[in-house]
Amino acid sequence: MKETLRLIIVLTVTAALTGALLALANKLTEEPIQAARRAALLDSLQLVLPDHDNEPDRETVTIDIGEQQHTFYPARRDGEFAGAAFTSSAQGYGGSITVMIGVDADDRIHAIRVLNHLETPGLGANITNPNFTGQFAGLDGRHPDRINLVRDHGDIQAVTAATVSSEAVVKAVDQGLKIYLAYRDQISATHGTE
Amino acid sequence: MNAYKELIKGLWRENPIFRMLLGMCPTLAVTTSVQNGLGMGLASTFVLVCANTVIAAIRNLIPGKVRIPCFIIIIAGFVTLVDLLLEGYAYSLHGDLGIFIPLIVVNCMILGRAEAFASKHPIGISIIDGIGMGAGFTLGLVVLGAFRELLGNGTLAGIALGIEQPILMMILPPGGFLALGLLLGLMNHADRYMARRNRRDYPAPPEFDCRHCVICSWGGSRKAADGGKS
Fold it and tell me: What value of ipTM does the predicted structure carry?
């Protein structure tokens, strides 16, 4: 009985102490982690958005469509709407592919960036290559038929030996643009909270 | 006790990867490049040294019956700490290593050192053991990472070496097994060669020797095949 009690006490104390120290560590690292996440997001936004002088990640517009929440990052220059960025996902070969798409005020794609993917290294993973993603720049969001693989009479040359991955990126861009265009007025009109 | 010996044993003689074959999950999964191998190795070393220190310090307070759960709690605590630190200060590495950082908790090398060494030795020598074993683990991951990155991607630590057609498979999962097997073979060969040159017998470590096993005929015929030399 006495021994059992000792076992219980030792385990409880160990767990409680570890827990307390981790709570402290969590508190101390909270700020750097937030900063690192924001830096990564800003890095992507900077890449896909046209020139802007606002803080798109602080003026987001969130639209609920069914169960899903869609977040848009509007870009402004001198107070004028200059474009927006948003993320969109589609199923690739190895898993979900998430793409960030930036459009300018005329609904042309400014740039896209693949944020997350689980494609095969050396094959499907080449969808992150600028040679592939660069093809999207300048395409008009209002003419979605151009945003297709060459095979489907579009303008996008698929990555060699990675048609499924290439198609997934095209699909993600296409779907994201459709949602964006449907809510475009709401996104461009909303002024930031700042 | 010879501190120097405890420090260097992890590099070759008791290398966690190539000799003890511990921690195979991160070994095979993350060694697709030098950078990933180094990051994983350093993260594991940090956890190992911290866990060894704490466990050696409280080794006399922990009753034998609950020692394993206590060790795991301590190890898990340090792993979570590393996870938080990496996310805050090395965001892209954290993204590359992903799920394998939390999985350091179940790395048998760390629990193995806690159980086999830190729980039986004082703090100082346990820290040295942790540093040595961690260095051996890191070395192993970096060597494997370099081998696979070079053959599979044609680069070394991210620097392109102008290899036209790399063997893609080497950075895919099968490549991990192939690279590990080849390096293990090379290491055993080197040991045997050194032993022969110094006119010593090369005794295979008993746990890796298949002579005592009768499942395949190799165990029985081997002695005859090499003239009873080994």
Answer: 0.76
